[in-house]
Amino acid sequence: MKKFLTILCCLFPWKMANLCLKLLGHQIAWSAKIGFVFLCVDKLILGPKVTIGHFNFIYIKNLTIEDEGYIGKLNVIKGPLSCVFKKRGAIGNLNFIKRSAIGITYGEARLELGELTKLTTRHYIDVTRDIIFGDFSILAGSGSQMWTHGYVHGQSGAERIRVDGEIKVGNNVYIGSRCIFNPGVLIGDGVTVGGNSAVTKNLIEKGMYMSQRLRHVEKDINEVRNRLIKVTDFDTLDDVYEK
Fold first, then answer.
1. Measuring CA to CA, which residue among 204, 237, 7 is closest to residue 128?
2. Fewer CB atoms near the end CB (10 Å): N or C, the chain?
3. What pTM does this model have?
4. For 99-123, b where at least 16 C-beta lie within 10 A, e where not — what string?
5. What pLDDT digit, counting tens, does each position of 192-219 carry?
């Protein structure tokens, strides 16, 4: 019932919406502004001068946006995940942030943006596992993808396993347009990732990284099984291993 009433509250003008949301037990600063949105959450925390723009679809577990953070317009954020934006953390417009249902995924997962960190526009963010950004970083331009799950197939037949891994991005990181991130990568502080790069391994040393020509890497499903940890505490549709 609380989720349904939260949806209805967000159809009112923002001052009335804030009052109604407070009465439902959500923590809303009076200066926070919520546009005409579909907002369905268990727990909502909005700090002073937070803005959620018009025509967003947000159907998640928990949403926390600290002082002066914002969500732009026409974003889709859905699935059993939590979002935490630190002070002035922000999402621009037309982004798609998704986590599949429990049973396909397992446990908890969150998207966290540090202070003054921003996801700009038209990015695809897969939150099967955590994606954590540090402070003063930006996923810039448009068209980047972040994947926290993937598959390894046997060389014949139907055999396959899923490999999950969280993505961590440090402080003062700049990521150009149309980059693709594989599961389980770590981006260190002060790193710049050039546009159209495929990030398949950790980038620790400060400086600029750019994509390179495709290279052949031997990959055997049994070798992958042996070096990763199988997820056994949850019922999932696939055999899942963590990086």
1. 237
2. N
3. 0.91
4. bbeeebbbeebbbbbbbbbbbbbbb
5. 999 999 999 999 999 999 877 667 777 7
